[in-house]
Amino acid sequence: MRQEVFRTPEARFARLxxxxxxxxxxxxxxxxxxxxxxxxxxxxxxxxxxxxxxxAYLYRxxxxxLAAAGYRVLVPDLIGCGxxxxxxxxxxxxxxxxxxxxxxxxxxxxxxxxxxxxxxxxSLIGLRLVAEHSDTFARVFVGNGFLPTGxxxxxxLFSLWRSFALYSPVFxxxxxxxxxxxxxxxxxxxxxxxxxxxxKRYMGGIRAFPALVPMTSDDPATPxxxxxxxxxxxxxxxxxxxxxxxxxxxxxxxxxxxRRVIGAANAQHTTIRGARHFLQEDQGAQIVAFMLAQMxxxx
Length: 299
Hints:
By secondary structure, the protein is of the alpha/beta class.
């Protein structure tokens, strides 16, 4: 049974720098899930999926350029993040639940022919959706993300991050974003990332994420992710990698995606220069330029 659920007061999201989008909501599994909806409603759909401990605010440098280019841009907040509801206990979250919650969002919005950009946990969830519902996706961009099965050797830095997220008495979201970004974030930007979490009761979801990454072959998520790889390897539509040149966590995972996924064989790939883990913060314009060049080569 789910424990207490917290909903961040709307006042916490007032006057966010560079982010004035009206909130949209659907209900998934009894929880309210937020998303941004920008651009023409009948246009081709681009979905941007964030990771931990971020939310839709991470994509503020990318939403407007994509919408101005004629796309409908949808940016969901994962459950436990942003304006979405936040079950309070770490135990309320699982990899499978995140996949189910997010697919329910896709289903309720009746999305088809989706171009997906996914990063961090957005990739762990997004690539599962691509594998399990491949006909929904027309094109995929992966930036600093992967689909782990527990068979890989994870960097020691990730093990330290996993322990910190679960056991540290403090979880300074703004400082974490700064550590994973190359450019200097303003105080207001760091505060915007902290806005969804008035106190520690709201942080169960973002603290849970690292422990949900499969790191051993007997992890509960390993069978589903192995099965997803079997499907993903056959994904026939374009899958592009655009990894940052300065992310120590996901470095090298792009090569595996390009080697294993059929749709990556003839797709274009790039390295995002001058960026760390949160490449959307560091080089949003560079990412959008690459995406648009693949989505509309005539530009």
